[in-house]
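On clarity, I found the account of how folds are encoded harder to follow than it need be. For illustration, here is how one protein appears when written out as sequence plus structure tokens:

:::
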Amino acid sequence: MIKMNAGARSAKAWALGAVLAASAALLGAPAAHAQSRAPMMVPMLLCPWGCGNTETSTMLMNAMVKDGSPVTLLPQESPGYMYNVREMANQKHWKTTVFGTEDAVLQLAATWGGTPELKEFIPEKLPTPFKLLYGDAWWGQGKFFVTFDPNIKSPADFKGKRIGLGLRGQSDWGVFSRMILETGYGITPQNADIRHLTPAQLTQQLMDGALDVAITAFGAEPNLKEWLISAPARQLEASPKPLRYIPVTKAALDKVNAKFGTSFLHITVPPGALPKQTESLEAGVARGYIAAHPEFSEEAAYQIVMGVAKHAPKMRDLHPLWKIWSPELMIHGLSDANVHPGAKRAYVELGWWDKAKAFPAVVLPY
């Protein structure tokens, strides 16, 4: 998940207005309708305000309320995806709540929590099973790097360097980046100066010369045609220095996936897709999803997926994160084994389910 730059203040104002509009729509609903079918209130754990998902989910909430949907989403800020998977281990949320997550977050929490390799990030194992509703983005942060140093060409050159990564509670920024450096390239806190900072801090320190290399962010989608540029990347673009992109190879991602049972995907970002990018860039992505416990209402899951399918095409021009939406993004990685039954019913009704078979499925370890 990334912080959005374009129109962030106006987007926040729009989203707050959407909350008020949704409340007004609910309060103003005809009495007969309210008596016949009270809306199902569904809390939605997402990420910190400004990550994009909180704003876009508020827009979805408003559209579904106006459309008379029996489900009312209640988007909620959270500290992030690492928090969400731990909070959702609490049984009180299983029947009522959906949450933002990623394929690798679910895979790591269930099998590697509390282990020497990952207890720094996930203190305990979290084997609670979850099911996927729909994909909402592909996230690249932490799975490629940036620098202003022309002598740094690969993560193999990071030994002895000052490296800016995200916080330990940030899945892509802080956790996945460490996994890729350590397992893919042998770069560890013992042979490099690895600093866990906020995205704003690491971006500024790279620009100021206090760091040699850092990470930044982008969002993508399965067709690799629409690219979501983050605020930190735009800040780096404004620097007069020539920005250099450091790739993460398929071989490095394969090592990580083989060791941890994750399903990071390797992609090639075409020249010009990212700020000051003059050459093709190898990078990894984690697939972002909205998920729920198997006990979550089948009808609610169905209504949520149908709501996204109906309203997303109309919202593509309203927020950059909706611009990367497509049916392929929603179903990429879904399978009979990992999809929530209510979500699958929606995809079958939409005529999209057979498309899922063309994509590599997310394998969850439960």
